[in-house]
Amino acid sequence: MFQPERLVTVGFTPRRRPNGLVASVMWLGGLIAGVAAMAVGAILAVFTAAAVAVIAVIAGVLVFLAGLALRARRNMILRRRSTDPEVIDAQKVGDTWVAYGWERHGR
After folding, report:
1. How far apart are the C-alpha atoms of 63 and 26, rounded to whole Å?
2. Which residues cross the membrane (predicted)?
3. Model pLDDT for residues 52-93, shown as the tens digit of each residue
């Protein structure tokens, strides 16, 4: 009886390691590929950090401008109320409304 040759190995069989010049070239290629991967990763990390910083600055500017807009709106509402003689003030007291500012002074 003879054993047929195995064409495919199944499982984790130890593989033959290259020797000599081939091993040195493969080791050098792996070293170069690792350094290149680390350099690309570092560059992408710097770009990501810069993008996050730019987004934070833009968000801060937007919040600042929104605060200025709200303050200007509040000032305009107060200015409009104080300068318009036709506007009266009304408050609800109990179930009725009491209006102030509609009386003419000097009659």
Report:
1. 55
2. 21-44, 50-70
3. 999 999 999 999 999 999 888 887 766 665 555 666 777 888
